[in-house]
């Protein structure tokens, strides 16, 4: 998006911090993170990390975020904390992207409450389809009860290998179920692609 001249805020809401390490590999230990924002310890503007790209800004994460999953359970309006913080600054960006945890927890709930559209990544592997039912049920429940603006933008196939019969079969099932919601583009199973984050390189 930055290459298209769009200003983008990336919120890393996963305690593993993969989005942070991939985009800002040299981040200092003292850098305030999304944990500080959620706990009310810092203003969100104090925690934003600008990159070498003028139009890309990161709200980083680290392992402290694991504690937030427990601490937030006793907080008032816990499902909308992230939304309230993002609302303060979202007018500064063309896009706000939230990288959420793969499991459904209080952090994911915050992401889905703050979001307007969702991109669902699906590995083209056997167990991926089994997990989709629970994901969709959670999304529809949140849309019905908390965030009526929430929509599925699309489904993105990952780890796809056109030479693998299982990948092709899973892809066909996704196409049958999601129709036009299944993105034409996909992320292939590729060694160099998998290694790119370790070098701080973009996949594109």
Account of the 3D structure:
It is a single chain. With 204 residues, the chain is α/β, with parallel strands linked by helices. The chain has one domain (2-199): 3-Layer(aba) Sandwich (Rossmann fold). It has 9 helices and 7 strands. The protein has helices at 18-23, 34-38, 44-47, 65-71, 81-87, 106-114, 126-145, 165-178, 191-195; strands spanning 8-12, 49-50, 56-59, 95-99, 117-123, 151-160, 182-188. The strands form 2 sheets. Strands 2-3-1-4 form a 4-stranded mixed β-sheet. The chain has a 3-stranded parallel β-sheet with strand order 5-6-7, with helices on one face. β6 (151-160), α8 (165-178) and β7 (182-188) form a beta-alpha-beta unit. α5 runs parallel beside α6 (106-114). The longest helix is centred in the middle third of the chain and has 20 residues, at 126-145. The chain is globular and about 50 Å long. It comes from marine metagenome. This is AAA domain-containing protein. Residues 2-152 form the AAA domain. It holds the Pfam family AAA_31. InterPro entries: AAA_dom, DNA_Partitioning_ATPase, P-loop_NTPase.
